[in-house]
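Data card: per-record layout.
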Amino acid sequence: MNLSNKPLEKLNVLSFKGVQMRTFHITWLTFFACFFGWFGLAPLMPTIREDLGLTKAQVGNTVIAAVSATIFARLLIGRLCDIWGPRKTYTALLVIGSIPVMLVGLANDYTSFLLFRLAIGIIGASFVITQYHTTTMFAPKIKGTANAVAGGWGNLGGGVTLMVMPLIFAAIVGAGYTKHDAWRYAMIVPGMMLLVMAVIYYFFTQDTPAGNFSEINRKRESKKFSWAVLADWRVWALAFAYAVCFGMEITFDGVATLHFVDSFKLDQSSAGFWAGVFGGMNLFARAVGGIIADKVGNKYGMKGKGWLLGIVLALEGLGLVLFSQANTLGFAIVAMLTFAMFLKMANGTTYAIVPFINQKHVGTVAGIVGAGGNVGGMLFGFLFKAESITYAQAFMYIGAIVTVVALIVFLTRFDKVAQPETAAQTAGAI
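The structure for this 430-residue chain is written out next.
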């Protein structure tokens, strides 16, 4: 049996052998780079706020803009993955997304900055492609683990971005430029990263282990939209779940630096560091969720995975409430690490379930659930722009919302439709 054109049965993260592992490493690294473009402005917001004279409400609107465009982009990207394949789709997204990233420095007032943030938001759709592409490369029993590791290591870019961008900014200031110019020039760096990854992605990956979509015979029904996807409650339950885990993650990425500056009087670099620690949890936390979900799924099926998701969401909600009550930096950091652990485990668990909901429309399901994450991020953003509540109160309200969604997940029967899957079926369906 030739395994070179089959989904892998085992994930060896130290291996770069074969198209499956090469694609795995390139796709998570590309997603990692995308975070530099998507959230590169977040750790520089204290400077940008001062430079452009932004109010709290205006800052909140930019946070909302950064994630709202991603909602529609993820829905579209999911379908394009099913039709064009992840290789061409990712390449196009990287090239198009690099343009507003490099040009955001032209913004000189609130309106133009807001529009650039909105345009940059399309880069967030990169997540759907990463999960889709990883799904095509691995067998059913290891999909959850592979998706979680790829997603987690890619999400790690969010944390590294919060740490590194202030350093790039400081280096530019050290070279003699003003703060007014430094944040603008700093964004050219992530824009160039996206273009480099576009070239790498196009020439060194392929759509499936068996070849690119244009080279292999694929089932025609995978190109047709199925309304049954929208009628499946499990899809929406997962969208709600992702709204309160990944949605909270990208919201926190956007406001954490400002929160640490305003609440604990840290400077921009120190605040960016601690905000980056939150993102750094993706090095292992999301993978832990996927690994445990695969083990639970192998023993207890989809029902077990659903219960696991409900549990980690409930613990995330509790951690957020504790974080909202922190009145010292030390307690805030401990609480942050607590809710971060369960939040990122929930991310991994969610996408350990996604590939098994509808095997013929994996991209569409992944796109809807992924968009749900950004809907959550957008709605949470309204809490942080409100003048009538503090950031701490916003965190407390979100903790309560997460707990309610955990209950919804507990009540959802993810095992209601038995979908036995084999590696051969997966290769054909995707």
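Known properties of this structure: DSSP finds 17 helices and no strands in the chain. The mean pLDDT is 90.

See the next section for split statistics.
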